[in-house]
Amino acid sequence: MVGYFKSSGVRESKVRQKRDARRKKKSETTNWDYRSNPYTDPGAQYYSRTCKIQTLYVSFRDLQWQDWIIAPDGYDAYYCSGECNFPLNAHMNATNHAIVQTLVHLVSPGKVPKPCCAPTKLSAISVLYFLDESNVILKKYKNMVVKSCGCH
Fold first, then answer.
1. Is pLDDT of 138 > 80?
2. CA end-to-end span of the chain, whole Å?
3. Cα–Cα distance between 112 and 99 in angstroms, integer?
4. N or C: which end of the chain has fewer CB within 10 A?
5. Residue 108 placed within a domain
């Protein structure tokens, strides 16, 4: 009989059904789901609202600057957006001041605002442009591209 059940797969499928039913019942009674943890799941809703870098392409044509800027046509500027909520984690690049401000905000939310999401590192871009009809300038503009964001 044991040989029959092993070879036919009947016993194996019944065992699997029982095991799956136990797992389902256990997951229904468990309050904690590690996948909903904002610190371990980058897709969690909490994480999507935290301070982080966002995509922003600046087109000089859209700004109608194409007549005097020769190159580039535009650049990836990026920007910072999101909330700086308690607790401020390491990935938020929070200053010590922001950490203290968050704690004070928890005590007196009407008196002190939450810290702001802002750039922590910026880099330069080079722009080739006409100064007048006869002069062309290559200039490096500092602090034009957001490289990282944090809470300040």
1. yes
2. 71
3. 13
4. N
5. yes
